[in-house]
User: Fold these one by one.
Assistant:
Number 1:
Amino acid sequence: MSRQRWIYAGFLVLLMLGPIILPEFYVTLLNYIGLYAIVALGLVLLTGVGGLTSFGQAAFVGLGAYTTAYLTTATELSAWLAPFGQSPWLALLVGLVLTALVAFVLGALTLRLSGHYLPLGTIAWGISIYFLFGNLEFLGGHTGITGIPSLSLLGLELKLGRDFYFLIWIALLAAVWLTQNLLDSREGRAIRALKGGTLMAEAMGVNTARSKIVIFLIAALYACISGWLYAHLQRFVNPTPFSLHIGIEYLFMAVLGGAAHVWGALLGAGVITILKQWLQDFLPKILGSSGNFEVIVFGLMMVLILQRARDGLWPILARFVPNVAEKGSQRQISQAEPLPKKASLQAGNKLLEVGDVVKKFGGLVACNRMNLSVQSGEVLALIGPNGAGKSTMFNCISGVDPASSGEIHFLGERIDQLNSREIARRGMSRTFQHVRLLPAMSVLENVAIGAHLRGSKGVLSALLHLDRVEEKRLMAEAARQIERVGLTQHMFDQAGSLPLGQQRILEIARALAADPLLLLLDEPAAGLRYLEKQALADLLRRLRAEGMGILLVEHDVDFVMGLADRVVVMEFGEKIAEGLPEQVQKNPAVLEAYLGGVA
C-alpha cells in the first residue's frame, strides 16, 4: 500500500474512533466541521476550480434547512405536499428539488455576469433570500421554527450529537468522493478549463455556459444537504445562520484550506471552526472585554494567506503525500482502445472557402472583402505585417468573432453563423497567438481537453465513476498526440513549467487531439529554436501527407516559404497577393509592405 493510501486509511480510523474516545464538546465541534466542510466543498468546485466567486452559499444552506423544517412541523399541508411531510428523508428530496430550481434560475441570471459583477450578484440574491426567511410568517419570521423532529436511520433514532456524527461524516466523504470523481473526468476537465477563459474552452468544444450551471447546481445541492442535516441536528432554525456574513465565512474556509483542492475544504472548515472557538474563549480573557474579536483575526489571517499562501494550506501539507506513480498512469494509457477517427479526405478536396468576408469593430475595418481557400493535403500560409488582420481572420473562421458580412464555408456547409464550439464539432481545430493553457494542469490533461468532443459521458456518469472506459480512451488519445509532437518526456509535467516554445507545441497537440480535418495555427513557430522549428516543420509535413489541411499564420518568412504550398499576404485588412511561395517573394507589393521594400 502506498504512503498516500496509508494516510487516508489512518484518517478514516481516527474518524471512526472520534465519537468513542472524545468528549461530547469535541464531537459537537467535529459535527459542525463536517457540516461546514460540505458547503466549503461546493465552493471549492465553484470558486477554486471553476473560478466563479459566490458569497451566497449560506442562502442555499437555508433553503435545505427551512424546507425540511416547514414540511416536518407544519400542521396543515396541501394535498400534494402532505406525503413529503411525513418523513425528513422525503423532505430532503423536496429541498433538493427546490434548491435545484432556485439555483438554476439564479445561476442563469447571475452567471452571465463577469468580473466584479458576479460576486456582487451573489451578494444581492444571498441578502434577498436571507431577508425572505425572516419576513415570511409561515417560516416563523425572525423567531424561526422549533420542534423539528429527529432523524431515524435503520430503526435508530439520531437524537444526540454522537448519533449524528457518522451520518454527517458519511455525507461529507460521499461528497468528497463524488467531487473527486467529477474532476477526474472529461466533464471535470471542461470545468477546470473555465479558469483558462471561455475563448479556449469553447474552441475545444466545451459548452462553458452548461459547465458553469453544472457546478453552480452541485455547489447549491451540497449546501442544501448541509442545511438539512443542520436543521435535524439542531431541531430548530432561524435566519441567523444563513446570513451574508456566514456566506463570507464559508468562502473564507475554502480559500484558507485551498480553494482549488478537494481536501482543502475539510482543512479550511476544521481550522476556521477550531480557531473560532478558541479565539472566542481566550480573546475576551486577554483583552478584558467581550466582542467579536475573532472577526478581526480572521481578516488579518485572510490578508496573510492571500499574500503568503494564495493556494491555501492544503498544498503545503500535500507536499508530504506523494502523487500516484506515473508508471500506473502510463500502463492504463497503453492498454486503452483508440478512439474512432474521422474519415480522411483525398488531397485536393476543398475544406475551407472564405468569400468577401468583412469584419468591423465599430468604425475600424479589420478585414475587408477577404477571400481565401484551403484544400485537404495543403499548407496555406497567411502572412503580413503586424496589425494586418491575420488573427482577426482566424477568429472569424473559427467562430470566435463572427464576420460582419461575407460567407465562410467548411466542407461545403456555411459556418459563419455558427459559434466556435459547433465549428470545432465539424472538424476544425486551432491554436492561439497568445498561448492559452491551464498551467497548473499536466501536459496530458491539457491535451485531453482537445479531445472533449470525442467523448460523450455526462456529469452523472462522471460523479459515479461510470466513465472509466471512455476516460482511458481519451487519455490514451492525448498521450498519442503528445508522443506525436515529441513531448513524451514532459507528459506528466505541469504545463506552466514548460518553456514558451514547448507550450506552443503543446497547443498543437491539444488541437490534434480533436481529430481535425483543418488545423488553424496562429504563429506556432514563435519562441521555438532552430531545431524545434525543423521538428515542427517535419510534423506539419506529415500531417499534410495524411490529408490534413493547414492554415498557418507566421512571421518567420524562411519557415513559411520552406513549408507552405501557397501564400496569402494581407495588409491593412485586405489581401494584396496570393500564389506560390516563390511568386509571392518576388511580388513588388509584398516586398514593399512586408519584406522591407525592393533593395
Number 2:
Amino acid sequence: MSNATKEAREKRHHKFRDYADAKKTQGDKPQNMTAAAKKMISLLAEKKLKLILVVVICIVSTVLSIIGPVYLGDIIDNITDLIKVKLTGNSLDLDGIKHILFTILAIYTASSVASFLQHFTMAGLNRDLIFKMRRMLNEKLSGLPLRYFDSHTKGDILSRVTNDIDNIQNTFQNNLIQSITSVVSVVGVFAIMLYISPIMTLVSVIVLPLGLLIALALLRVSRRYFRENWRTMGDLNGHIEEMYGGHKIVKVFGHTRKACEDFTEINDELCTVGRKAQFYSGVLMPIITFTSNIGYVLICIFGGIFVVRGDLTIGQMTVFFVYSKLFMQPIVDMSNIANNLQSSLASAERVFDVLEQESEPADVADDHLDEGRNKTVELVNVDFAYSDDKPLISGLNLTVRPGQLVALVGPTGAGKTTIVNLLMRFYDVKGGAVLIDGKDIRSVPRDELRHVFGMVLQDTWLFEGTIRDNIAYGRSDATMEEIVAAARAAHADHFINTLADGYDTVLEEDATNISQGQRQLLTIARAILADPDILILDEATSSVDTRTELMIQNAMKELMAGRTSFVIAHRLSTIRKADVILVMNEGAIIESGTHDELIAAGGFYKELYEAQFAGSSI
C-alpha cells in the first residue's frame, strides 16, 4: 500500500472516529474491558432480585443434571451383578434397577422444569436490561450538545444504537445462563470426580493448564480485533449513510467509482479485522478439544489399570469417564462464551462511551423571558471557539433593537451560522454574554429560550408522516383551519391540493416524493404556524423559483412585522431592505449599515455585491 493511500485511510479514520477517540492513538492498545464489564454488572444489579432468582434456578437445574450420571454407575454395577446371578442360575431381582430408573427420571424432569424457568426468567431480565440501555442512550443523545453530533457521523451513532445494542442483547441472552451453568458444572463435576478417584482426577486435568494458558493468550489478541471490528462497522455505516444519502450528488460529480473504492477499502478492512478476530477466537475450541482428548486417552489407560486391579468397578469407571466429558465440556463452552464476551464488551464500550459523554450543562433556570414580540438581542464582548486552539469570535458586540431585520452576510466560514448557534444555545459562549431583553440566555431554560425562536433553514427537515402533521410540528395544538392558513401564507396550499390526498399525503423518508422547493415551502408554513417571537432565516427561499420567491418574501414581510429577525443571506439582492446589514469576516463584524450606506462606503460589502452580480451575468 502506498504512503498516499495510508495517509488517506488515516484521514478517513479520523473523520469517522468519535470526538474523544480522535485524541487517542488508533486502537492498538486494548481498552479497559473490565470497566465495561463492571458497568454492565451495575446495570444488572438494579434487577438483583430477578438476577438472584435466575442464578438460584440455574444452580438447581445444573446440580440436578450433574447428579444424574451418579446413578448410571449404579445401574451398570446392578446389571453386572444380575449377569453374575444369571450365570449362577439364581432368580433375577429387577427392583433395584427400577428404583434407580425412576430416580433418574425424577431428577431429569425436575432439571428440565428448572431449565425452563431459568430461561423464561432470563428472557424477561434481558428484555428489561436492553430496554433500559436503549432508553438511556436515547435520553443521553437527546441531551448531548451539538458539538457531539458535529464530530460524529450519523452511521456511527446509528451503529451504536442498533448494532452494538443488538450484539449485547444476543450475547447476554445466550451466554449469561450458559456461563453460570458452566461454572457450576465445573465445580460440581470436579468435586464428584475427586470423590470417585483423586488419582484419576489428577490424570484427567494434568494437561488442562497448558490449554488454558494458550487460550488466555489468544483471548487477549482476539479482544483487540473484536474492538476494531465494531469500530470499523461504524465506519462502514457512516460511509454508507453519506454515500447513499447523497447519491445524486455522487452521481452528478462522477464519484460513483471513488465511492465504491472507498466502500471496498473500508469493507476490506472490516473483513480483515473480522477474519483475524474469528481466527484467533476459532482456534480456542480446537486447542481445548485437543487437550481434553489427551485427557480422555489417559483416563482410559489408567482407568483400565484401576479396574483390573479392583480399585474401581466398571460402573465407577464408566461414571468417571462420563464426568470427565462433563468436566471438559463446560470449559469448551466457557471458551466460546469468552469469545462472545469479547465482542459484546467491545460493543458495550462503545455504548458506554456515548453514555459517559458530557451532556449539555444543566439549566440553572431562575429567570424567564417576558412575553411579546418586541425583543432586544445583544451580544456583549462575546468570545467563542469550536476548539480551544482555534479562536473564531473575539470581543464581538452587537445590539439588535426590537422589530429590526438584521442580515448577516460574509464569506463562508465568517461566523454567520455560529451567531445563530450562540443565539439558540446550541453552543455556549466562551466569554461575554448573549442577552435577550437584558437577560443572559444562560439563566433561561433552554426549552423556553428555543420556543422564542422560529427557524427556516436552507436544509429542509421533514419527517415521515402526513403534510398536515409536518406543518403542525411547529404547534401541535393547531387546528386544521390554522394549518391551511399557514400553508396559504407560505404559498404551499396550491401544490398541496394538487396531490391525491391533499394535506393527508404521507411524505416518504426524506420527503423524496415532493420536490426540494415544495419541501422548503412546507418548512416555511411550519414557521408561520409556530408564530415565534424571533425569526432566523437561512436563505429560506433558495430552493424555489423566482415568482414563488417574490410571493414568499411578501408573506415573510407580514410574518416578520413587529418581530426581531435574523437573515443569513447568500444572495445579497434579498436583503436590500434590511434595517441593518452586518458584514462578517473571520468571526468579526467589519462593516454595518443599510444596503445603500454600505454600497456608498465602497468597502468589503460593495466588493461582495459587485462580485456576486458580476458572476451572475456571466
Number 3:
Amino acid sequence: MAGRIPQSFIDDLLTRVDIVEVIDRYVPLKKAGANHKACCPFHGEKTPSFNVSQPKQFYHCFGCGMSGNAISFLMEFDHMHFVDAVEYLADRVGLEVPRDAIATITPSQQGLYDALNECNLYYQQQLRTTPAAIDYLKNRGISGDIAQRYEIGFAPDAWHALEENTDSNDALLVQSGMQIRKDSGKSHDRFRNRIMYPIRDRRGRVIGFGGRVMDNSEPKYLNSPETPLFQKGRELYGLYELRRATRGSPERIIVVEGYMDVIALAEAGIEHAVATLGTATSSEQVAQLFRETDEIVFCFDGDNAGKKAAWRALNSALPSLKAGRDARFLFLPDGEDPDSLVKSIGTEAFMQLLIEEAIEASSFLFQELEQQAQKGADRSGTGYKARLAEIAKPLISNIPTGVYRTLVEDQLFEKVGVNVFGSEKQQSQKTYHQTQKQPSQPNMSPVRKALIAILDSPEVVLEIDPEAYEFSIDIPGATLLLDVISLIESKPDITTSGILERYRETQHSDALLKLVQVGMASTVESGINTPLSVLQHAIEQLNKESLRAQLKKANLNKPSEMSDQQKNELRERLQQLKKP
C-alpha cells in the first residue's frame, strides 16, 4: 500500500512531523530526560513505561513491546488505515498527498465515481430549472450560496431520468445505488421528486446521496444503499465541507441527525456541523471526528428516540475519550430540531445554548445508568448500588486507561462505595511488571551493534569515511547494513522513523524494529557509549572479520591463484590485525 504513495513524499512527511505532538493529542506526555514518557495507551499500568523519542521520531513501550513511528501509532491506536494516517499527518503539516497516489482505484471503482459525479451534475442542473424545488429551498431559508457550496440538486419525478440524461449505463447506475433493478431485470431510478444532497468522502468525491421529499410523503429521507464506495457507518454528511470551511481544527464539531440541520446551521454561520446517515453513530465516525477536534457535541431531540440515539452515540464515543477530549450532549426542547431552533433564537443564542446546556459524557453516562439501576429500588440500598456497579463496569472499561477513566471510576466509587476496578488493576500491574523485560545485548554481532548505533542516531553515518567500509557482503547482515548506510548518505535528514518506514512490509521490518527497541533500552540503562564510537568499533570488527575470512580462504602457506604482491599485502594486513 505504501508503494502507491511516492517514497519521497513519505520521507518528507516524516521529517516534518513531530511524533511528540502527534501522540500528545491522544496520550499526555511528560518530559523525562532525553525522551517523553506516559502510561502506555496499549495496556493498563501505573508506572510509565511508554517512551517517545523526539530525535528518533519513534515510540516504544518497555512493558508490552508496542513500537513504531507516527504512522504506526495512528494505525495501532486510532485504527486508521495506512493511507488515512498519511493523509491525517499531511494535513497537520500542510502537505497534500499526491491524489493519483492516494490509493489504488480499480477501473470498476473509477466507473462508479464517474457515474455518481454525472448524477450529481445532472441533479444540480435540474434544480436550476425546477421552480418548485427552488421555492422549497428558499422557503426553508437556504440561499443560493449555501446550495451551491453543498451542491444541492433535485431528482425529477421520472423513472429513467439518469439513464436517459447521463452517459452511465444501467449496470453502473445499479451498482452505484442510483437505480433499483427488479426481478424482471428492468431497472428504474431510486430517487424521484426529491431534493438531493450529495455525500462526499474526505477527498471530496461523491460516494452516495441523501434525498428529501418536498411534501409530507414517506419516507421523508432516503439514502443511497451500501455500495463498494459507500458504507454508512464510516461516512458523515458535511465533513468534507466542514474541513474546507474551518481550514484547521475547529473548537468543537456538532453532530446532528439530518442533512437540513447541517445546511440550516451553515446558513446561520455555524459551519462545523455534520450529520449521521440514517444509522446509529459508530465508533469509527467518532474516531474520525476526534481527529479534527477535541470536543464533539451531539445535538439530538429531547424525546425518547433522541435519548436512545444519544445513548448509542455515547457507547460509540467511550473508546475515544481521554483527558483533554470529551463528548457532550445537548437535548433540544420538544418539537424543535437544530434547523427550527437556530431560526427561532438566532446564531448567538444557539451557540450559547450549545456551550452552557450540553452535558458532559460522564454526566450523561451516570444519569442513564442510575435510571437503569433504580427500577423502583431505593438509591441508598445495597441492591441498587450492586446493580449500578454491575452495569457501569463494562462500559467504563471501554474508556482508554488514563486520567479521564480514573476520574470516571472515582465517580462510580462515590456512588457505590466500592472500588470496582481495584483488584483488577493491581493484578494487571502485577502481570505486566512480571513479564516486563528490558532488551539486552549479549554476544551481539558487529552488524547488529552497527545497526543499533545507526538507528539511534542516523547522522553518525555522515561522520564515517565511506572508504572505511572494507568488509565483505558475505558477512550475514552486511548487505542490509550497507543498504541502510547508503540510504542515509543519500538522505542526510532522514530520521529513525523514516528508515523504519522505508522497510515497512519488507523481510527486514521486524528485525530493524527490534534493534531500535534494544537501542532505546540501552540508552535508558546506561548511556555510556556514544552511537559514533559504537559504530566505529563495530566497523573495525567487521573489517577484521572480513580480513580473517580472506586470509583463511587464501591459505598463504599453500599455492593459490593469488599473486605474490597480493599475498604480501594480506600478510601486512595480518600483522596489523595482530596489533592491539
Number 4:
Amino acid sequence: MASSIWSWLALAFAALLLPAVGTVLWLLRQRGGLRRQVPALAHDAEALNDRLWSLADSEERYRSLIEAQGDLIVRRDGARVVYANRAYAALFGAGEQDLVGSEMLLPQLASRPVLLLEGGARSFDECLATYEGERWISWVETAVPGPGGRTLIQRVGRDISARIASEDALVEARARAEAANEAKSRFLATVSHEFRTPLNGILGMADLLTDTGPDAEQATYVAALRTSGEALLALVDDILDFAKVEAGKLELVEEPFDMVQLVETVAELMAPRAQAKGLELAAHIAPALPARLVGDRDRLRQVLLNLVGNAVKFTEAGGVGLSLARVGERLEITVADTGPGIPADRLDVIFGEFEQLDHGGAAGQAGTGLGLAIVRRLARLMGGEVRAESRFGEGATFRVTLPLVAALDAPEARIPHWSQHHVLLVSPAPFAVRFLAETIRATGASVSIAGTAEVARAKLAGDNPVTAVLVDHALGDAPAKELAAAAAAAGIRACLILLSPHARRQFGSPQEAGFSGFLIKPVRTRSLYERLGSGLETGPSVVDEPAARAATQARLPGAGLTVLVAEDNEINALLAMRTLERCGCTAIWARDGREALRRVEASFAGAAQPLALALLDVRMPMMTGLDCARAIRALEKRLGRAAMLPLVAVTANVSAADRAAAFAAGMDDCLAKPLEREALLRWLERLSQSAAGSLSA
C-alpha cells in the first residue's frame, strides 16, 4: 500500500517536473540563440543610430540652406501658426517658438493682384509693416498635408523691397523724363513761335521790297537779306522737326491731297534758289500716277523740300530732277542731281544725325546735318524707306518709297491726244528735256530732242515734219530767237520758249521775239498741255500785253473782298495787309482778339463793311485767336446767321495738335508762318468764286 502511494507520488512528481524541465531546456536553447543574435542586433542598432544622425545632419543642412537663402516660411492650420522659420519670425522680432501656436499677423500696407499658378498655388506681393520697417514680400501660397490628415496652408516668401524700390525709382525717373520731355516740347513750341514771327516779317518784307522795283545794288542786298532769312528758317525748321521726331511727338495724318499740286509747288518754291546758282530744276509726275493720294501732305512736302534743297545746295553745275512714279503698290520719289556725288562708304552714313560731306569746293555749306536724318525718320514713320545711289564725281540719286494709296475721289488724268504731231524739244538741261519728252509722249505725240541750236536746225530741216517747237532760253537769248525765226520759216505755228521767272522779266514780249507763247520753268504739266495744245489747235496767239495786264488786274483773286487781319505784331500785320491789297482785297487790321471780335460784331450788325474772311493769329494779347474764334461762332449761333464767316488760324506751330485745337475752336483752316501766298490765294479764289455764285464756299 505504501509502495503504491510512493509510486503514484513519483509519477505525479515526474508529470509535474517534466514540463518544467522542458521549459528550462527551451529557455536555455532560446538564450543561446539570443546570445548569438546580440551582435547582429547591436550592429542593426548602430546602423539605425547612424541613419538617424545622418537624417538629422541632412535636415540641419537643408534648414541651413533655406535659412541662408533668406526665404520666409510659415505654415498655418487655419489662423494658427504650426511652423515658422527664423527668417519669418525675424519679421516680428521674435523667435520661431514664440510664433508657434499663435495667430500673429503683420499689418498689410499695400498689395498687388493675386496670380493663380499651376497646381492651385497662388502668388501675390504685399507690403507689410514689420519689426524692421516696411517690407515688400513676394509670396507663393500652397496647400500641404499635415498631421492627422489635416490640410495646412504654407507660404514661402522672399523680400523684394530692393526690387520694388528700383521699380519705383524707374517709374519716378520715367515721370521726370516725360515731364522734361513735355517741358522741352513746350519750349520748342515757344521757340518755334518766337523764331518764326520775326522771320515771317523779314522774309515777307523782302518780298514786298523786291516788288517795289529796287535798283541793281538794292536788289542784291534784298536778295542777300532773303537768302539769309531762308537759311535761318531752314536751320530752325531742321532742329525743331528733328526734336519732334526724336521725342515721338510727330503725328501723321491720313487725308487725301493733290500730289501734282504738291510736287509743282515744291519745285516752284526751290526753283529760285537753283536758278540763282545757274542750275536747272525740273519736276515730273508719271501720267499713270493718281493725281490725288492719301497720306500726310505736310510731311511728304517736308521730305521733298529736304531732298531737293540738299541736292541744290551741293550741286554747282547742271541741275536737279524731281520725279514721281508708281513702282508696284508703292510711290517712288526720285531726286537726282549732277553734283559731286557721294563716296560708296558714305552712302548710308549720310543719313545719320549731324553728318555732312566734305566736297572740297562745296565744303563749309551751312546746315545742321539733320536734313537727311529727318527724311529717313519721316519715311520710316510713314511705312517707307529711303536709300542713296551714287558714284563719286557723277552725281547722286535719292529714292524714297512710300505705301501711299490713291484717293477714292481721285479724278482721271486729262491727257490730250496729239498722235498726229511731232514736237521738237531744244534744251541743254539734263533733266527738264527728258521730263518734258516723257510728258509729251504720254499724249501719243512723237518727240525729238536737240541739245544745241545747230542740231535743232538740222531736225527742222529733216524729213520728219515738226509741228511744234519748245526752246529753252538756257541756250542763250540770241540762239533762242534765231530758232523761233527758223520755226516760223518752216511754217510751224506752235513755238514756245521756256523762261525762268527772272529771265521772263528781262526777255520782253515773246510774241515780238517770234514765239507763240512762253512757259515758266519749272514747267507745270497742265500749263504745258494748255499752252502747247492752244498752239497746235489754233495757231499762234497774239497777246496784247497791256490789255492782258489790265484784264489781270480786273481778275485779281481778292477783288471786292474785305479781310480782317487780327495780328499783334505790327510787321506781320503790315505784311499780311500789303499781300492782301496786292490781291485786290480791302484789309482791316485788329491788334488783338477783342478788337477783332468788335470788328466782326460791327460787320454782322451792318455798321461796317461785310467781312469775307478773318485771319486770326493764334497768340494775341487780351484774347487769343482760338478764344476769338469761339466767341465769333457763339455770336453767329446767337444771331441765327445762316452763312458763317470763314475763319483761318495763323500760327507758327502747325502740328497735328495745333491744327486740331484750331478746328475745335471753330476755325476753317490753319496756315503756317511765314504766311504762304499760295495758301492765301486759294482762299481768296474760293471766296471770289463763292461770291460770284459759281462755287459754294
